[in-house]
Design a protein that fits this description.
Elements: H1 2-9, H2 13-33, H3 49-63, H4 67-91, E1 97-99, H5 103-125, H6 129-145, E2 152-154
Antiparallel strand pairs: 1-2
Helix pairs in contact: 2-3, 3-5, 4-5, 5-6
């Protein structure tokens, strides 16, 4: 029944998000319990997740009516995940393993770059040097500041 509905309408962005979240969850299970014997092949489920979420962020950027608010929501997601990672790391430490998973930072940088490219193009098209310059600034900002980290880092606490 469910598959018939998908065949008729195709996958929606919500369906793809649920798929990405499910695959990410399976991948995180592998990361947390690999020492307990979870097979390495379980990690393969997580490989397409970043690509799925990047695709969805491009779709979201393309179809949103307020690009600044979209960027702000991604930035807030990045901050909230950072706080969540800190809390989990502080209260539920697992040896020397430090969790710094946060796709929202990478999504924010990607969307910020798309926004910068759009501003740069609009600035040149409309002969607005200040808008084009600000677009160039937005494109360069992540490169100057060094980007984000969204992986698990094994290091010493302390």
């Amino acid at each position: 029944m469910l598959l018939e509905g998908i065949k008729k309408r195709g996958l929606t962005s919500f369906d793809i998000k649920i798929l990405g979240i499910t695959l990410m969850f399976i991948d995180h299970i592998h990361e947390m319990f690999s020492a307990a014997g979870v097979p390495t092949w379980v990690d393969m489920f997580g490989r397409p997740v970043a690509t799925i979420f990047m695709f969805l962020s491009v779709e979201g950027f393309t179809h949103t009516h307020n690009k600044k608010r979209y960027l702000l929501r991604l930035l807030i997601g990045f901050w909230m995940m950072g706080i969540g990672n800190f809390v989990v790391g502080h209260f539920f430490s697992v040896g020397n393993l430090v969790l710094i998973n946060n796709i929202f930072g990478d999504l924010f940088i990607g969307v910020l770059t798309m926004y910068g490219i759009q501003m740069l193009a609009d600035g040149f098209k409309n002969h607005q040097l200040s808008k084009a310059s600000f677009g160039f600034f937005l494109i360069m900002l992540p490169l100057v500041l060094g980007g984000t980290s969204s992986h698990i880092h094994a290091g010493k606490n302390g």
